[in-house]
Protein: EamA family transporter
Organism: Chitinophaga rhizophila
Amino acid sequence: MTTDTVSNKPDNTKLWTFLSAVYIIWGSTYLGMKIATEVVPPFLLSAFRFLVAGSIMGLLGWRIEKQLPSRQQVLSAAFVGWMLIGIGNSCTALAVHYMPSGLVALIVAAIPVWFVGLDWAFFSKQRPTAMTITGILIGLAGLFLLFNPFAPHHDRSYPLWPIAILAGGCACWALGSLSVSKLTMPAPITSAGLQMLTGAVFCFLISAIIEPDAWDTLQHITYRSIAAYIYLVLIGSLVGFTSYSWLTRNAPPRLLSTYAYVNPIVALFLGWAIGHENLSSQALLACVIVIGGVVLMTLRKRKA
């Protein structure tokens, strides 16, 4: 067991360094996935992304940590990888393929709802405060303003069905993240590698079922998509996911979930500046409302 696992008070500089990496890097991966899936379908793209990243992480873990994980540790890492990578991340890639990347990031911003609810139901048993519940209601109101299903269809250039899949992916992501503290996990780098490889295998299986012609798209891949793929592997996966994996062991759940209201700001800006995605006044208002709600969700009342 590593020092990171048993330490109750991790170094604040290290904590905020990893948290900042997740804030910025993961905010940029939404546009990266949007570009990378222009040709290659999302599940096959995710499978290749995490196969390469997981293999690199596994080799680094073998060289640096020199710890052979036990069977229980492998199973624990596989479960977390299935929830975070296999379901959570690939559902996000699917949603980004059909919807504007910045708006997908805004939906994911509501992930603290799942953290709070699942933590209350299955982990800490800590009942949400009135402030948290108020934040949840405000955040949901903002999402309704943005994706109002009763609005005329001609006002919207994308389908709404990916939102349901994305919501399921967010729930699995939160459940997997919260489970880490209750499971016997391998050393951090090895754990991240096993999680990515498990997610890659799952994505290959799903791709074979629902993307029958996916492999044929590889012959049409562009340099633009390749560049986005390399960025997702080296920066989004190796740096971003490793940082998040460390945070799941060392950061309080409420602090960990705060990345959800920084990511959409980065994603919305990059989607507008680089991806040429439209930002209406209504979308900006909804963004402010959702993020305001998420801030309330993640604030903890100070004891007198």
Summary: The chain has one domain: 11-298. The longest helix spans residues 71-98. DSSP finds 13 helices and no strands in the chain.
